[in-house]
Structures are given as C-alpha cells and as structure tokens.
C-alpha cells in the first residue's frame, strides 16, 4: 500500500509538471519591471513585428570588452532584441566581434568606413589612467538580399560617454523598428524634388536623395509648364505626397505660386529650404576675402505670410557656431585650419518634438530669422539659434578678416532666433478672396489637414563634394565632425509621411544609472578590501560561533 502511494505521488508530480510545461508553451508572457518600461515595445513596433513573415537576421557588432558605459549599451541592445525575438521567432540576432582573433583594428575600421559605418573612438579610464579604444556601434539587418545599416550610438557635441549611451538606448527601439520597416514594406509614398527655380544642383543633394530612396519613390519635378498648361501641371504635382524645395534662387511666377498653394490645399506636404539673403561662403574665396550679403526676393513673401510666417532678409550671427576652415601655406605645405565663424549657427532644440529629439546639432550657413504670425495653424519651432545671437541687416559686407577679431559679446542680445518652423493644420489659401492667376477646377480655399516645414537656409540640405563625388550630408571632411543635418531632415520627412506612428517612438525616455568613474578609481582599494575582507571576517565570526556552540553542547553532555 505504501509502495502504491509512493508511485501515485510520482505519477501525480509528473502529470503536474507536464501540465505546467504545456500551459507555459501555450501562454507566453514577459514582464517589464523597469520604472521607465524600457523593454515594453510600442504598439507601432508590435504591429510591424507581427508582419514579419520571413527570417530577418540582425548582426550586431558590439561583442567584446568595452568600457562600462558601452557595456550597458551592449546589454541594453541584447535585451531589446530579445523582446523582438520573443514577439516573432523570425527575428534572429547575433553579436559579432569585428576584432576577434587578433584582427587588425585599422584595417577593420577602414572596411567599416567603406560600408558607411564609422567606428567610434572612446576613452577608457582604468585605475585612474586614460586610454583610447575603438568600437563598432553598428548593426546590420538582413532579409534575403536586402540589408539595412543600423547606427546604435548617438553622438552629440559636448556629451559625456554616459549621455551618449543614454541617448543611444532611448533610440534603440526606433532604430531597429525603422530598419525592419524598411526591409518588409514596399515603398508607396512619392516625393517630388522641385527643379526649375535655380535650386541646388543634383550632386549637392545627392546624399539626402539617396537616403530617402530607401523609404520613398523619388523623382524630379519642374513647374516650367505652369505658364502653358497650369491645370495639367497641378494635376501631375498632386500625385506626389511631398515636395522638396532645396534652396531656390529664382523668383516664382504667380502661376507657380498658385499651383504650389493648391497643392497644399489638396493635402500635399512640403519641405522648404529657402533663403531671403543671397550669400555664399564660396564667394569669400577671392583675393579680397570679402563679399556682399544682399536681400533676395523670390516673390514668396505673401505666400508664407498667408500661412503665418515671415522669413526676414537678415543674417543670424551666433556665438555658438561651427568653425570655418581656411587653407594656409602652399603646395605640400598647405594646412587646413579651423577659425571661429559666427555665421554658421549650430542650432539648439527648444523642445522634444519627435523630429528633433536626441539629434546632433544641425549646422546652418548664413541663416535668416523666422517670425511666426498668429493664425489657426499650429507652429512648432524645431530649431533655433542660441541665446547668444544677434541679427544683422542686409545689404552687408562680409569679410574673412573677422576670424581674427574678438567678438563684442555685449552686442549679442537678440536671443534665440527661429530657424526651422513646422506648420500643421488646415491652411487657408494664399489666394482666398484674391484674383486667381488662372482658372482651375475644384479651387480650394481651405486645405485638408497637412504639414509644411520651412527652414531658413538651403545649405542645411547641401552635401560637400570630394573629387566630384558627394560626401555624407553633415560631414565636415577637414575636421571629421558629423552634424545632425541628415538625421534632422530624414526625421522631418518621415514625420510628415508617417502613417504607422513610428516617429512617436523617438520620444521614449529612458533613465540609466552609471557609476562615477573618478569616484570608482579613488575608492577602488576600499571597495576591494570590503569585498574581499568583509566576507572572510563574517566567515571567521561564523566559524568561531560554530566552534563555541559545539564545545558548549558537548561539554554539557559530559
């Protein structure tokens, strides 16, 4: 009977164990106990992950020994990818050490540069000593023959390693979900790159156009036929979801303006990079080193005024700015040196809008201040100059001689100046209650809900050239600095054309606690003693008490 009861207990235990395992296989749940819910994927991410039907392989190049801050980035990347894999088994990820088996760091770094994935050099403090190491903060998502690069490290001028890692962790979900979205969804939206009004040449916008082609269909569009067949021109333009006007320099006709206005009324979205002052940095490269900044009338004053903004024909002079690079010497002795240049503002972000959240400073050149006017549209200043700014009227002579002069700090009293403004809502037609340039079918005086972004400097979208080939937008070849121009513009286009709520992920906030490296180095010996000596001391006390207890026990028995 006892034997039967024993077997019955064993069988019951096995049955319960099988039942628990079966239930666990059918009902899977993960709990996020972090205060900021950093491992809870957004609804937009989950919807995109659910649509994955083929294996996606994600290779992460963050394996190896790193400083503690970047070890956190490695761990956070692994943990969030585990969340992705838990949602869909088609997601497989691997961590790869590019420097495994004694690979030459410089050769590997060069290979990453050629693939468009710049390595990062970080300072390592160990035992109070500083050294430098190289890491590869990138991932590559692969679906069949398609691949997408994923940057894992966010760089911001002046940020500490802790800030860089925190900012990077905040953007991990967006970075991976955006890459997966590009892999699994076909391109649908269409963007028109406007030509015919003296816009930037194709080579100078090539890098940004190439980047956008990963997401959207791109095509040039001209308004030249507006004078001959404006109705047809408008109908063709309405087929595009967004237009990009990259630094036009020739005035618009009323027909062209009316077409652009009615495009907006029909819900078309637009990105304007436009200037009210004609001035180029290259025009200073003459024997005198001087040039005149002159007002530029593109016949768009009433156009933007009706929408609630005004681009002033003035220049923003900002103490927080990017340097100008000037050559000294001749031939092989030529040196390229940076000098202070206050006409190249490095813009700040006055809010945490998804377009500008956690991006590097955006570099402007000869930017114009923007005034916002009251109307029914929602206006968001995305980028502005620093509080140490002043406004200079035009016409004005600009000279390279100012690089050697001390700025008059007391004159920088105009405060922050808006340089990029996002307009959202229902626009009122520029030609409402006005004589129309031509008659069209279905004229609209009120738009569908739409967006327009106005940036008061066309050079924000301009990439440099090297031997005729376009460099990455925002990259300064002589200093090696990469500004946030490309990410800002890409975020802006994605935001205006986003129909999945993906951009909302960029506002996610994550708080990460780091050790103080200086305090850690200073107190290292103390904590080593505590960690080694304290357990031994406690063990010794326990041994003494144990021996005392045994002696007392057996002494009594005798």
Automatic annotation (TrEMBL):
Q: What is this protein called?
A: Protein involved in gliding motility GldG
Q: Does the keyword Transmembrane apply?
A: yes
Query: What sequence ranges are listed for the domain ABC-type uncharacterised transport system?
Result: 188-492
Coiled-coil stretches: none
The record places domain DUF7088 at 35-141
Q: Which InterPro entries match?
A: ABC_transp_unknown, DUF7088, Motility-assoc_ABC-rel_GldG
Q: What are the UniProt keywords, alphabetically?
A: Membrane, Transmembrane, Transmembrane helix
Indicate the transmembrane segments per the record: 527-548
Pfam families given for it? ABC_transp_aux, DUF7088
């Amino acid at each position: 009977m006892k034997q039967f009861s024993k077997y019955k207990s064993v069988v019951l235990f096995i049955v319960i164990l099988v039942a628990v395992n079966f239930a666990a296989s059918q009902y899977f749940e993960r709990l996020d106990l972090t205060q900021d819910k950093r491992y809870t994927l957004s609804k937009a991410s989950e919807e995109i992950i659910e649509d994955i039907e083929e294996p996606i392989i994600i290779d992460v190049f963050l394996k190896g020994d790193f400083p503690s801050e970047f070890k956190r980035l490695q761990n956070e990347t692994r943990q969030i990818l585990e969340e992705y894999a838990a949602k869909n088994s088609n997601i497989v990820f691997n961590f790869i050490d590019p420097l495994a088996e004694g690979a030459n760091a410089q050769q590997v770094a060069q290979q990453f540069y050629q693939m468009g994935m710049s390595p990062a050099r970080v300072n390592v403090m160990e035992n109070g000593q500083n050294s430098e190491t190289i890491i590869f903060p990138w991932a590559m998502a692969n679906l069949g023959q398609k691949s997408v690069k994923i940057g894992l490290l966010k760089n911001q001028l002046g940020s500490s390693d802790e800030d860089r890692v925190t900012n990077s962790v905040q953007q991990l979900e967006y970075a991976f979900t955006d890459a997966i979205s590009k892999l699994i969804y076909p391109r649908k939206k269409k963007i028109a790159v406007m030509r015919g009004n003296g816009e930037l040449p194709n080579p100078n916008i090539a890098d940004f156009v190439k980047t956008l082609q990963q997401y959207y269909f791109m095509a040039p569009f001209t308004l030249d036929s507006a004078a001959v067949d404006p109705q047809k021109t408008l109908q063709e333009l309405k087929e595009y979801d967004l237009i990009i006007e990259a630094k036009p320099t020739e005035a618009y006709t009323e027909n062209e303006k009316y077409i652009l206005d009615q495009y907006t009324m029909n819900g078309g979205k637009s990105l304007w990079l436009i200037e009210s002052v004609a001035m180029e940095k290259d025009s200073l490269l003459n024997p005198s080193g001087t040039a005149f900044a002159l007002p530029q009338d593109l016949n768009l004053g009433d156009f933007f005024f009706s929408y609630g903004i005004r681009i002033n024909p003035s220049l923003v002079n900002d103490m927080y700015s990017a340097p100008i690079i000037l050559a000294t010497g001749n031939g092989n002795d030529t040196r390229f040196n940076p000098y202070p240049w206050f006409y190249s503002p490095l813009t700040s972000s006055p809010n945490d809008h998804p377009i500008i959240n956690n991006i590097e400073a955006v570099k402007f050149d000869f930017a114009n201040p923007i005034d916002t006017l009251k109307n029914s549209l929602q206006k968001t200043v995305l980028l502005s100059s620093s509080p140490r700014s002043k406004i200079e009227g035009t016409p004005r002579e600009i000279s390279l001689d100012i690089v050697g002069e001390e700025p008059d700090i007391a004159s920088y009293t105009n405060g922050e100046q808006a340089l990029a403004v996002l307009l959202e809502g229902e626009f009122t037609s520029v030609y409402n209650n006005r004589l129309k340039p031509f008659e069209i079918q279905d004229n609209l005086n009120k738009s569908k809900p739409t967006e327009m972004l106005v940036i008061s400097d066309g050079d924000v979208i301009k990439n440099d050239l090297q031997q005729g080939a376009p460099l990455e937008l925002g990259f300064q070849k002589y200093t090696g600095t990469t500004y946030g121009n490309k990410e800002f513009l890409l975020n802006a286009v994605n935001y205006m054309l986003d129909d999945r709520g993906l951009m909302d992920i960029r506002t996610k906030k994550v708080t990460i606690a780091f050790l103080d490296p200086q305090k850690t180095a200073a107190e290292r010996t103390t904590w080593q003693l505590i960690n080694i000596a304290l357990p031994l001391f406690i063990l010794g006390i326990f041994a003494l008490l144990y021996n005392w207890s045994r002696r007392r026990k057996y002494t009594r028995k005798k």
